[in-house]
Design a protein that fits this description.
Elements (H helix, E strand, L loop, with lengths): L1 E5 L4 H11 L4 E8 L6 H10 L3 E5 L1 H9 L12 H13 L2 H4 L3 E3 L13 H8 L7 E2 L11 H4 L17 H10 L16 H13 L4 H7 L3 E4 L5 E4 L3 H10 L5 E5 L7 E3 L7 H13 L8 E7 L7 E5 L4 H7 L2
Parallel strand pairs: 1-2, 1-4, 2-3, 4-5
Antiparallel strand pairs: 6-7, 7-9, 8-9, 8-10, 10-11
Helix pairs in contact: 4-6
């Protein structure tokens, strides 16, 4: 007997998995990735639990539900109920391939005011074959599932948790020696107001294309008067990511003689001289020296190190804020 566990990287899904493992059932972990969240935390959870793990990219399907979620958005632009249903339905489609008989999740009834109500849990369950989605942490408060009815699992060894208190879960984590789990709701960019503002601006100006969504995860974003986008790295790691994400016609900017942010100017068929000047000025603003005239080197993503140089000063603060997305 095998179950598939949808691991979020958080404590609840880890505890749900432990409860099923304790009943002698083999469990394999499932994680998912999109431009808005990845499966790294899920993979670490599986490793701590000592179970096999599978990760699947659901970008195409997820973008479609993000455009028009049936059950609406949460506080920001997070379509949690639609998302959970998609994860469950994707896992359900993998049951035969992975030799699994049912699916488990760490959902707790009433823990989240919108996405874990009884109605929301029922909506999510429709993503799986009838009765094949088991929530071990709240099972005794929910309708009996096939694994319970068929005695694959002992319902009386499952829990009846509800509400937002996490005292029981934290006590269980201490008993099991579980550490390093993510905070509730962590890891999804769609719950962050600043990111959602940039996401909706992108939808309005360019549409949701995967390369632009990947770029949206990195740095400070600005929209120039011409409509061109500029992104400034905030640290060495973001500088590295911008260099990796640069396309053939993009321009990269960096101070020639002092530590500085790397700045990416998203290229197009027409780059105006004013765009070059503004991108260089933004590069100065986020360098170590924020005043005076600075030499900024810039090159095309395809130029293999062939560099031009321009001098620039930081833009006035009010102008910079007008450009910031």
């Amino acid at each position: 007997m095998k179950a598939l566990s949808l691991l979020s990287g958080g404590l609840d899904s880890m505890l749900a998995t432990r409860l099923i493992l304790e009943q002698g059932i083999e469990v394999e972990g499932i994680g998912f990735s999109t431009p808005f969240f990845d499966s790294d935390r899920s993979r670490r959870s599986a490793s701590r639990l000592g179970i096999s793990f599978h990760s699947f990219d659901i970008t195409t399907e997820f973008i479609e539900i993000l455009k028009s979620p049936v059950y609406g958005y949460g506080k920001n632009c997070n379509p949690c109920t639609d998302c959970h249903r998609l994860l469950v339905s994707t896992a359900a489609g993998l049951m035969d391939e992975l030799g699994a008989s049912f699916i488990i999740t760490g959902e707790v009834i009433g823990q989240r005011p919108k996405s874990q109500t009884r109605d929301a849990l029922n909506a999510v369950a429709k993503g799986a074959p009838a009765g094949m989605l088991l929530r071990p942490l709240s099972a005794q408060l929910l309708a009996e599932t096939v694994p319970e009815r068929e005695r694959w699992v002992d319902r009386m060894k499952l829990l009846r948790l509800s509400g937002r208190s996490r005292k029981t879960q934290l006590n269980m984590a201490a008993e099991y020696g579980l550490e390093g789990y993510s905070s509730p709701g962590g890891g999804c960019l769609l719950t962050e107001p600043g990111y959602c503002r940039k996401l909706m601006e992108l939808k309005e100006r360019e549409g949701w294309k995967v390369p632009e969504l990947k770029l949206l995860r990195v740095g400070r974003h600005f929209r120039l008067p011409s409509g061109t986008k500029v992104v400034s790295g905030r640290d060495e790691e973001e500088n590295r990511r911008l260099a990796e994400l640069a396309r053939e016609n993009d321009y990269l900017f960096q101070a020639t003689d002092r530590p500085a942010s790397l700045v990416l100017l998203r290229g197009s068929s027409e780059i105006r001289p004013g765009d070059i000047a503004l991108a260089a000025a933004i590069c100065v603003r986020y360098g170590k020296e924020k005043e005076g005239v600075v030499k900024i080197g810039y090159w095309k993503g395809s130029s293999e190190g062939k560099e031009s140089v321009v001098t620039a000063q930081p833009p006035p603060a009010d102008k910079l804020e007008q450009l910031r997305i």
